[in-house]
Amino acid sequence: MREAGHRSVVHVKKLQQASRHLEVIPHDPERGVYLVTSATRPDVYYEVILDPDRPAGRCTCPWAQHGGINCKHVLAALQARYAAQGRLSFWRSPGAARRQHRRLLTGDQLYITLRPRVRRFSKPELNRER
Ligand SMILES: [Zn+2]
C-alpha cells in the first residue's frame, strides 16, 4: 500500500464499507482518542486521534504511518464520534457530496454528509441507545 493519500480518496466507498465492520472503542473521546481494530487482525488495535475542529484524524496503522490519510480506522472513529447525530457517508468530491442534500462536513481531502438519526418519540426504550 504505497500510493498513500490518493488511493484512500479514490476508494473511499470501499473504505467506508470496510469501516462499518470494525470495532471502535472510545478510549478518550473527549480528546478524540479511539481504538479501532485491524480488519485483518482483530486482536490488533490502532489508535486514532481525531482532530478536534474538523472531521479528520491520524492513525497508527502502517498505511497511515506511510503517509496515507482517511484510512478505514479514521473513518470508523469518525462514525463513532458522530453516531449520536446520525450516519456518515464519505465522498471524494464536494460535488458528489452536495448532491446528497445533507449537512456537509469537510475533512482531509474528504467530503462527508450526515444523515440525521431518525427519532421515534413513541418508544421510551430508545433512551438506551447510546
Ligand atoms: Zn489506520
Topology of this structure?
Blueprint: H1 4-10, H2 12-19, E1 24-28, E2 33-37, E3 45-50, E4 57-59, H3 62-65, H4 72-81, E5 86-91, H5 94-98, E6 103-106, E7 111-116
Antiparallel strand pairs: 1-2, 2-3, 3-4, 5-7, 6-7
The chain binds zinc ion.
Zinc ion binds at residues 46, 59, 61, 64, 71, 73-74.
Helix-strand category: alpha+beta
Strand order of the largest sheet: 1-2-3-4
Strand content: 25-35%
Question: What is the H/E order?
Answer: HHEEEEHHEHEE
- Terminal CA distance reads 35 Å
Largest sheet: 4 strands, antiparallel
Count of strand segments: 7
Average pLDDT over all residues? 88
Parts with pLDDT < 50 across at least 5 consecutive residues = 1-5
Count of individual domains: 1
- Heterogens: zinc ion
How much helicity do the residues have?
25-40%
Number of helices, counting only DSSP H or I runs of 4 residues or more: 5
Give the radius of gyration: 15 Å
